[in-house]
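Hi all, long-time lurker, first post. I run a small reading group and we've been trying to get comfortable going from sequence to structure in the token notation. Rather than ask abstract questions, I figured I'd post a concrete chain and ask someone more experienced to write out its structure so we can walk through it together at our next meeting. Sequence below, copied exactly:
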Amino acid sequence: MSQPNQKTTRRLIGLAVVAAACPMQSQAQAQAAPVAALPTVEVVGTTPVPGIEVPKDQIPSNVQTADDAQLRRAQSLNLPDFMATRLPSVSVNEIQGNPYQLDVNYRGFTAGPLLGTPQGLSVYQDGVRINEPFGDVVNWDLIPKAAISSITLLPGSNPLFGLNTLGGALSLQTKRGDTHPGTELELQAGSFGRVSTELTHGRKLGEDGHLFLALGGLNEDGWRDHSPSRVRQLFAKVGQDRGKLSWDLSFTHGDNRLVGNGLLPESMLMQNRKQVYTRPDRTDNRMSMLTLNASYQLSDVQTISMTAYTRRSRYSTLNGDLNNDFDPPDVEESGVENRTRTRQHGEGLALQSTVSAGIHRFTFGASVDRARTRFAQTEAEGFLDATRSVVPQEEAEVDALLAGKSRTASIYFHDLVALRPDLQLNLSGRYNDTRVTTRDEGRALLGLSTQLDGEGRYRKFNPAAGLTWQATPRLTAYGGWSQGSRAPSPIELGCSDPQNACVLPNALQSDPPLKQVVSQTLEAGLRGTFAPGLSWNASVFRTLNKDDLLFVSSGLSRGYFTNFGRTLRRGVELGLEQRTDPLTWSLSYSYLQARYDSPACLVSESNSSAETSSACGGEGEIAVRRGDRLPGLPAHHLKFNVDWRVTPAWTLGAQYRAYSRRSVRGNDNGAHTPDGVEFSGTGYVGGYALLDLTTSWKLGRSVELFAKVANVFNRRYASAGQLGRNGFDAGGAVLPPDAWRNEQFVAPGAPRAMWLGVRMQLGA
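-- Answer (accepted) --
Happy to help. Here is the structure in token form:
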């Protein structure tokens, strides 16, 4: 069974034997013509469900692919780490300070675990959308790295991948026992007290079955103070290819505890980069998912496919924060402990049929997804101890108790039309009907004063069209237009009142109606080869978001969701890659202009320009103009990767990436100016460049040693920031509220680190 969305290599070999009779002293001698091998054709899936795979050269966008071999060579800790080092146009923000809680940015759109970050990328695992229904966030720690077989990053507002595909879709396929046989144990240890293990086993079952198992575990102390984490991952897949029927059933489970201590004021950063602002900041994620994929070949020209899943998750957070309302003499109330609990149940089914008829390859599908969420938040006041950890001094009080539901029904189609052998037309569309409801159980059951009842229905048809033209065997031109949308999630519906800002990560107040986000992408480009093994690409893109959902911050931990008029992302991507033996390398450059395309007034009390503009008169508001850059997104990306097989047993690798400066949250208008007294910080974090080195050495057929040095030159950098009020002096002592200072908070990057590991092939 061919796996959907998997980087698949199919080599077609044509054999021709020509017999030539040469009479030579009554003997005939037959001669065979040489074997002619056609070029390798790489295919990728264009829908989440199995059933349609298209040659990569016939896709009208700059699609990117990678496989498990590249993931292994990079020695990446997890998927975001790999994407940041290897994939063009991708950057990360380390806002939480935990390597599993990164915001991944691609073409100005984000997928990450933090509520309050506008989400614009959809993520799929084996055909199942794994953006969480409560806030469309992505918990990277729940993706089993050891089970990843292939990665496909499709850019644009691709309607075939459903809701939240505003800037792109990330599709992951997992391993099978017949394609990844054998048993392997991997052990790794090194800096930050990190110890990790991975165990995988793959095998065939009988003539047509397969089995794959993967276990992963990690413990680390973290590079900052009081930041230990624990990750446990399990994946199992069993399946069968029996004649015209193929199926596989997989189970994914994660049970993780992550501590990410967040942003740090620059004044405290100068004293000690490892210290934390307040603590604890702990997240516990527990999830189980069962997925069934199947396909049946009805005839030589028609295949039907399906994906079904059920997903159960429990998430909890524990956040210690500075109490904005405490009275200085009463130090017993200097801190506040916020806890949340989220329970989610989701299930879905998708059916799809693919038919080839003449010049058409037509796919039609339908899907339904639903989710139920129960959410609770409590708060307890306490005091800050010497490590700035909140010690609660009272019983926790319930702030919010919410039940939410969402249901999305969709129908979609895709038609690949071969207008000529060298010219293809891609037509697709998807109709979504989404219902989102919230029920305020805190008000009904506990008599809380919250107002969280709400309901929204969002319907939208999103089309797409594109052309690809193989102008020569070494040059392809393409262009396309696409539209996608995203409906507000229950957290966004419940946290949309400027008069009742939410306490992140999840507190809720009121529910003014929100509109769904609509994005439109235009892309054109060229790709080709200069010589065998040497490929290049060049593309331009433009994505316009209408009614974009933004989280407007009114402090370090408070804010609300609102629709913003328009935002615009446009840019250029250039790439050059050579894959030969013994040297493989790639060079890419990306330019991104991500900006507001409408004027607005946003709350940013720590911005020096707040309330000084005639356009805005509200308390703590700043005037954002058309053309102001979106925060947290660098304009320039440069990446260079090289892998060199020095000998058959020894390899060396290097990963270099450089980013330009980016503005911090709260400086959305770019007008913040430090005065050295009331306001500090430039409103930007500087650009930086990082170099990682890797090596591996095979000791025979069964043992391989490997090592990695990250941030070789020990650069001190920050990947993100925010303007806010600092309640501590440079030494970390709490200040009375009237002495708090407007300051720039930043997300410090990890220092130089080194890890050593060993891989062992067990058994035959």
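A couple of things your group might point at:
The two ends are 25 Å apart (CA to CA).
The helical segments are 68-74, 79-86, 266-271, 441-446, 490-494.
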